[in-house]
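Q: What structure does this chain adopt?
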Amino acid sequence: MAAEAIALVLLAGAGLPRLGGDATGAIYLALVLFFAAWATQAIDAHRRAVEGGAAGGGAILLLALLPVAVVVFTGFWLVGGASATPAATLERFVGAWRDDRPADGERLLLQPAGPAALAVEWRRADAIIHDRIVVLAATLGVGPGLHPDDPFADLEFRLVDRADGDPGERAVAEVLIVRQVVARSSFLGLFPTAVQDTQVLERLGEVRLRAVRLDLSGTISAWPPTRVWRVESLELHPPVGVKDP
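A:
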């Protein structure tokens, strides 16, 4: 058991600091190998005990490994890789913005200035988005499918290939005002149908993201190196002639 305990401590010490980054695959593989070795040793110990004349009823105790493994692997995938990709970081940032959780959003910034500063930036962005949706709803007339009182229902954050510098280190997500429209289509070219389509009304700005290496100097091991994605900036550009709140 001493070897298993040491291996578990090493795995936790090396894995936990990297849990949110792009080394998730390596951590998961190490977990699988650890549990496989643990199960193999338990089965071998049980076999030797039976061969030595011990009662065979203890086999059921091997099932105790199953709930432990289920809990560990389920918990791992709930939090593992939370910032491993631009899409994952963007989803968390937008979720924090939508729910007005600046303390959570601030942790995802490349250069955090505090929750209060981020809350101010979000309020400014909310005002720009609301004003543009109101204008577009008035311009498009009745039934445009826009929601000035729920702006996030009319937003889409779309990752694009365009990025300045190394595309492996930077990413850009366009901030788009969209609406859902019903378009005519056909089934097998014979039967008329209607499908819902997303129509882009305006490109309002962009969210820039950058991959950064985690500082692992105080951890058990500096290998494997791990990156996380952080939000570099939120940039909204009202159309020419529209005053920025």
